[in-house]
Each structure stands twice: as structure tokens, then as C-alpha cells.
Design a protein that fits this description.
Layout lengths: L1 H8 L12 H7 L6 E4 L6 H8 L3 E6 L2 H14 L4 E4 L12 E7 L5 H12 L2 E12 L20 H7 L4 E13 L5 E12 L8
Parallel strand pairs: 1-2, 1-4, 2-3, 4-5
Antiparallel strand pairs: 5-7, 6-7
Helix pairs in contact: 1-4, 3-4
């Protein structure tokens, strides 16, 4: 898998563009800047946007080629991001928590998906926010990107189950038009979630 993404990201162009994902952009701009975790961040488009808007960003990805392009983009835009090479299920920086986590088109096989989702949201501070967009199984009929393996695609029931420890604020499954570089372009079917980690209940 690492070799697959290194090969993709070794292209000169940014294959998913340099502008942020629109759902991510709109939701992030509603929040007060703080610390942000971006798993599977790839070429850095969302990380750089967040840093330009005052967020302290930690990006994760297994691709060294993706990291190179992300740091190059950050340098070009005059911002700083931290970027670790890590598998998502192995990331375990003890004591580190975040005000927000964004999972933008992070598609995981079913045998690890729920475990990784719960592992990552465990790094949210109480009151912190999750921003998620992913392709649904309806995406198979489209040519606008995403996995071609049905088991890697999601639906609203999967998302509801994996993130049932969070408070859902905005949750939709719909058709959108993507314009995110050459590999995400055209009509797409996605599930979108904006959710908050509850504060602990005070015991009297």
C-alpha cells in the first residue's frame, strides 16, 4: 500500500489539487483555531489550508512522497506543518490530544476500519470536533474517483456505528460535484459528518 501511494504522489502535479476539500474548509472555518490532526493527509492540501488559518497541524501518512509534496506546498505558502510518516493504527503519541480531527477520503479495509476510527477519535479533546467526508458504495457507478473495491466504501450506517460515541451535528449522504485535481473530478456520492466529542458528565 505504501508503494502504491508513493507511486501516485511521485507525479509532478498535485493529483488531488492544492485547494482544500470544500466540506473540510467550510466546517473548519466555523471553529476556533487550535490543534488539528489530519490522518492520511497525502499531498497536504488540507493541512496547508488549516495552517494558513491559524491551526497547529499534525499530518500523518505512510507515503514519503506525499510528505515531500506537502512540505513543499507548505513552504510555498509560507506556513509550517508537522508531518509524520505513520500507519494510522500505529499512531500512538501518548498524551497528545487535538481540538479537531479530519478524515477526508480515508478509506480503510473492514477488518481494521472501526478499530482505527475509534483509535483516532480517542485523540480528540472533550468538546473537540470530527470532520469526515468519504465515498459511499453508490460511488462505484461514478468515474470521479475513489476505491473500486466495494469493501473499501462506506455508507451512513457504517459511519453511525463507528462514531457512535460522538454527538452528530451535521450528517448527510448525498451527491456532490468534486473538483479536486485530476483524480477527484465530477459527480460523486459521499457521506459527510461533522460531530463533537461530548464533555464528561459531572458526577454529583
Amino acid at each position: 500500500m505504501k508503494e502504491h501511494w508513493d507511486e501516485r504522489y511521485s507525479a509532478t502535479d498535485y493529483i488531488y489539487g492544492t485547494n482544500p476539500n470544500l466540506w473540510f474548509r467550510d466546517k473548519l472555518l466555523q471553529l476556533t483555531p487550535g490543534s488539528l490532526l489530519l490522518p492520511a493527509e497525502g499531498e497536504g492540501r488540507n493541512a496547508v489550508f488549516a495552517a494558513k488559518n491559524g491551526w497547529k497541524v499534525l499530518a500523518l501518512d505512510q507515503s514519503t512522497e506525499g510528505r515531500k509534496k506537502a512540505l513543499k506546498l507548505a513552504d510555498r505558502e509560507g506556513v509550517r506543518i508537522d508531518y509524520l510518516i505513520s500507519n494510522l493504527h500505529e499512531f500512538n503519541d501518548i498524551g497528545m490530544t487535538f481540538d479537531a480531527i479530519a478524515l477526508i477520503f480515508v478509506h480503510l479495509p473492514p477488518e481494521v476500519r472501526e478499530q482505527v476510527h475509534r483509535h483516532l477519535t480517542g485523540f480528540l479533546k472533550p468538546g473537540g470536533f470530527l470532520i469526515l467526508e468519504a465515498f459511499t458504495d453508490e460511488q462505484l457507478k461514478n468515474t470521479s474517483g475513489g476505491p473500486k473495491t466495494p469493501l473499501l466504501l462506506y455508507n451512513s450506517k457504517i459511519i453511525e456505528r463507528d462514531f457512535n460515541q460522538l454527538r452528530f451535528i451535521d450528517f448527510t449522504e448525498s451527491t456532490v460535484i468534486l473538483d479536486e485535481g485530476p483524480l477527484h473530478r465530477g459527480e460523486a456520492h459521499v457521506v459527510r459528518l461533522f460531530a463533537q466529542k461530548p464533555f464528561p458528565v459531572c458526577q454529583q
